Amino acid sequence: AQSVTQLDSQVPVFEEAPVELRCNYSSSVSVYLFWYVQYPNQGLQLLLKYLSGSTLVKGINGFEAEFNKSQTSFHLRKPSVHISDTAEYFCAVRKGSNDYKLSFGAGTTVTVRA
Amino acid sequence: SQTIHQWPATLVQPVGSPLSLECTVEGTSNPNLYWYRQAAGRGLQLLFYSVGIGQISSEVPQNLSASRPQDRQFILSSKKLLLSDSGFYLCAWSVSGEEKLFFGSGTQLSVL
Q1: What's residue B99's pLDDT?
Q2: Cα A61 to the chain's mean position, in Å?
Q3: Does B40 score more than 80 pLDDT?
Q4: B43 → closest Cβ in A32, A34, A105
Q5: What is the pLDDT averaged over residues A5-20?
Q6: Is A61 helix (H, G, I), strand (E, B) or coil?
């Protein structure tokens, strides 16, 4: 079984500063990796995903994430955040193409301040 | 376009009372359907998923059950709620064979 660890539960950051949200996973097989975002009073939506190929993936709203197989990590980054990036971010793992189940991390709450 | 409806948005129920949360998907056929729970301070936990009518897989033993009476309808139920059933419940769907999940707006359940 796979598990997902998001190392930071709360990340306060000033507007226009960079942010990195850490995610590590454990799995004995190849996985698909995802970041979902939940804005205040909204449902979850997909931010970006890694299935194969280039280890650096770009998502919506200027976010990107890098898959590091040796470190089993999939950290999310944005070079300059906006107030509107205030949200909860979830890292998720799925075990290959024949598995329907996503395992989610506990979430990281990002609060952007002016 | 596809949409997912989940209701109610909030629910306050006494311990021991029954529960029924409903989720419907429009604009697609034969979706995979999921129920997740988000407890305070914890991640999303997969409760049930379904790949077709009448096909339900349970991920964790619990006080809840799920049913899929129609292709695009997924119901989460309990005969007697426990305090520990409190949480934020999310319905989601995906196209069979694809990895992207689409989530509903969630139901905040408080069991008192």
Answers
A1: 74
A2: 13
A3: no
A4: A105
A5: 95
A6: helix
Query: How far does the CA of residue B60 sit from the closest CA of chain A (Å)?
Result: 13
When pLDDT is cut at 50, 70 and 90, the band that residue A2 belongs to is low
pLDDT at B30 over 70: yes
pLDDT at B61 over 80: no
Burial class (CB in 10 A: 0-12, 13-18, 19+), B71: middle
CA distances to A70, B53, B67, B109 from A88, in Å: 27, 33, 30, 19
Dihedral class, residue B22 (left if φ above 0, else alpha if ψ from -120 to 50, else beta): beta
Cα–Cα distance measured from residue A93 to residue A4, given in angstroms and rounded to the nearest whole number: 7
Q: What are phi and psi of B85, to 5 degrees?
A: -80, -10
Q: Residue A99 half-sphere exposure, CB side, CA atoms within 13 Å? A: 16
CB B44, CB A90: distance < 8 Å: yes
Contact B101 A90 (CB under 8 A): no
Query: Nearest-CA distance from B70 to chain A in Å?
Result: 20
A58 shares contact with chain B (CB less than 8 Å): no
pLDDT at position B25 over 90: yes
Distance, in Å, from the CA atom of B63 to the CA atom of B13, rounded to the nearest integer, reads 15
Higher pLDDT, B22 or A100: B22
Q: How far apart are CA B21 and CA B67, in angstroms?
A: 11
